[in-house]
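Before surveying the methods themselves, let us examine one representative protein, written as a sequence plus integers encoding its fold.
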Amino acid sequence: MGAGDVAVSGASPARASMPDPSVLATWGLPGLFLIAMLAGSVVPVPSEALLAALVYGGTPPVTAIVVATTGNVLGALSLYVLGRWVAIGGGGPLGRWYARRRMKEGPRMQRIEAWTRRWGAPALVMSWLPVVGDAFVIAGGMLGVRPLPFVFFVTLGKGLRYLAVALSAAAAL
């Protein structure tokens, strides 16, 4: 296995599982930033596992939390921009992808949009949630949440999630 290869534990060619956090930990803080940024978009990668592995390996928890949160919020901004673009009539492959996802999610997306419409930017604290967090972020863009409140509440939600992960990893030491 080369230095840039990612080990996949228990993976078969047809169905890969999540990469091994101990291998991802060799990427250090730049790797955490990249993985967290991808996780903040729609790419399902184990940013929490990498953060925990780094903290367990001796990285200061505050540093790891800041790096992971920053990357994850930047990834979320890509979904925010997608939501804004779709709201103003953007099409193309991304617009079609979102339309398919919205139809597939159906009532769940409608509830998330209604929740975001009712509570506004503070609803984006829920962006940390698995599966539906991305929908809150896209809804924030579609509904025209201003960028500064968007960044504040998404950072709060995602930062609290990473804080919980880092504290758990630190407690395991």
Notes: Residues 1-16 have pLDDT under 50 and may be disordered.
